[in-house]
Amino acid sequence: MRLAFDTAGPDSGPPIVLLHGLTGSRERYSRLVDWLSSRGHRVVNVDLGGHGESAWADAYRASDYAIDVVELIETEQIGPAVIVGHSMGGTVAVTLATRRPEMVEALFLEDPALYATEEDISGAEEFMTQVRDWQSSGATEDEVVGVIGHWPSAHPDKTFSDLADADELAAYARALLAFDLAALEAFVRGDTFMGHEPGARAECPVTVIRADPALGAAFLPEHGDRYLAAVPQAQIVAVEGSGHSILGDPVGHGPYMKALDDLLSSL
Questions:
Q1: pLDDT digits over 180-192, tens only?
Q2: Domain 5-266, CATH 3.40.50.1820 — does that match?
């Protein structure tokens, strides 16, 4: 599948590929793109299949997403690249690194969904019903923003609008209106993880930055132990007080940027 993507920075710069999480889009990385490109990196910001401006797909396994990213890297001649992945994007990044290691210089995984847990799917049916209603009724971006701004966040007594600005809320509203719900259904069924091997050996440098388990983390402390047994060179950075979207969390943003800077400086 031909994926929608943007590029920024010099063509000759060290390449970085950004992979968003489930229900998201490449718009979540807009500010990170500016930071990376200003430091001389060639940044490729991707909408995964079924998300954003990319076409909807017939299947949504990690291997399917990874095949699409491989095709993009080959077509654009941008490998080997640092792969940055959030949540399910981290699952795709790990699949890519274990199946096509020659394409990956390093992995930066933001609270990656490497191991399926019950917490991953809690509330999914209610969420899918809401998004399906928006899509079928032709809801506007502003109407969606008006609802999601009041959704509770992982932080007690804070809503989405307390943590995200107007541009971020609008970007997520656009992502939800464009999203193929079959991708979430595949995640709930476990199809996304078919063929995914988090315990497979990865030879490249790896940084995993994980959220607070009390605030909806996908990558739990016990997952860190399991992952280090398979990938001992991995660096795991715990960010207490941060929710799942560490980059966009007021508590997590600083540690995220430092961990990414440390990884890139080490290459």
A1: 999 999 998 889 9
A2: yes
